[in-house]
Amino acid sequence: MSRVRFPDGFHWGSATASYQIEGAWDADGKGESIWDRFAHTPGRVRNGDTGDVACDSYRRWRDDIALMKGLGHTSYRFSIAWPRIQPAGKGAPNSKGLEHYGRLVDALLAAGIRPLPTLYHWDLPQALEDDGGWPNRDLAGRFADYAEIVTKALGDRVKHWILLNEPAIFTTIGYLAGHHAPGRKSRDDFLRATHTVNLAQGLSFRAVKSVHPNACVGTAFSMSPCEPESDDAADAAAAERWHAFFNDWYLSTALRGRYPDAFVSGPPLDRMDVRDGDMDLVRAELDFIGINLYTRTIVRAQPRDPNLGATPVGSARDGQGPRTDFGWEVWPDSLHEMVLRVTKDYGPRPIEITENGCSYADGPDANGTVRDERRIDFLRGYLGALARAIEAGADVRGYHAWSLLDNFEWAEGMAQRFGLVHVDFASQKRTIKESGRWYARVAAENGFDG
Ligand code: IFM
């Protein structure tokens, strides 16, 4: 057994998102979000679950901060609900919304926890979806206005910001697959949405910096190492295109000012509505790269597909890693590989692991203990892989377990539990899982015996 160590000052934290934990969906002047509308539409979310109450954290946030403090967390990634700040997505801010997040930030700082807010974790004001949503390029400017409002209110205390959560996921699942809010299924809407999101990233980056030039600003990118299905050169090329689209489409634009080589015949700039001067606007010299990582992706060449010429054939190879309750493979090397790939392509540049975690349904036993050994094994594996990447030269500054609490897992409703802390959704009782205690020891010792 050898000691797995992390650099001094490494941040140990957890992550949540507003719609997934806050509840209070129409309190204190909050506007309707696309997730309120989607979850209130029968048939969209498993079991008809909604985020109306979720973990009730809009009211119980003091308890949640006390939990984190007790567990020795030093960073908390949460998100700000845009419709609490601008109920219709534009115009004057709602002071009650800003006050709520101001109190949260003050209490985090008082507890010695770094606030790491995300400006957009998928709860778009419904009024902006009614105006065309992300496929409407005007949304980029609206998002920058909102970013400026929030930075002016909190930027004296918040030093690290995340602009967007997983642009590749919310555009694909929300506008192409239709499985998430707003539930559209249109390739053209989707392609335009990807470009608006890139514009929004560039404009909001500058909006935050115009208020606080020294703020550290990044985005949380969904990332998954793409492996060719076979040794065939065509599969290898297809895997690289898949990587370019799903891992790099919002990073290459920011840091290099160009779309990566994802499409067989080049990026469909007309269908994306890319205009003169846009590629200057999308640029953003991000201060750190946020990585959200859950699975790897196995890719096969698909010559008949005129877009990426590739198709994913799964997120695991038969018979390899064990599966979580979501069916996702546990494969720690994927974190090692992804962090080193990003370091090779864009480094040296600070990286934050902004999400990583697993869903298991374990609940309290007769003694009230939640024995989630499988989550401890998961964390041990992924943290070990991360430590190896740091040793190999990656500049990783923090790790955020997804999630602090069991919460509303989007189209899966309450069916998938990712928390370090178990939540009884009927009583709102919180119970720290054994994994939460194990992770607290790792945070306290800045390492563990591997
Ligand atoms: O719950 C989500 C989170 O909102 C975004 N990243 C993936 C998590 C697990 O599916």
Question: What labels describe this entry?
Answer:
450 residues; 17% strand; eight-stranded parallel barrel; TIM Barrel; binds 5-hydroxymethyl-3,4-dihydroxypiperidine; 15 helices; alpha/beta; globular
Kindly describe this structure:
The protein is α/β, with parallel strands linked by helices and 450 residues long. It has one domain (3-445): Glycosidases (TIM Barrel, Alpha-Beta Barrel), CATH 3.20.20.80. The protein is 38% helix and 17% strand. It contains 15 helices and 15 strands. It has helices at 18-21, 34-39, 57-70, 82-85, 95-110, 126-130, 138-154, 167-177, 187-211, 233-246, 252-256, 278-281, 333-346, 373-391, 434-445; strands at 3-5, 11-15, 75-79, 114-120, 160-165, 216-223, 226-228, 288-293, 297-301, 310-314, 351-355, 396-402, 421-424, 429-432, 447-449. The strands form 4 sheets. It has an 8-stranded parallel barrel with strand order 2-3-4-5-6-8-11-12, surrounded by 4 helices. α7 (138-154) packs parallel to α9 (187-211), α8 (167-177) packs antiparallel against α9 and α13 runs parallel beside α14. The chain is globular. It starts with a strand and ends with a strand. The model has no long low-confidence stretch (mean pLDDT 98).
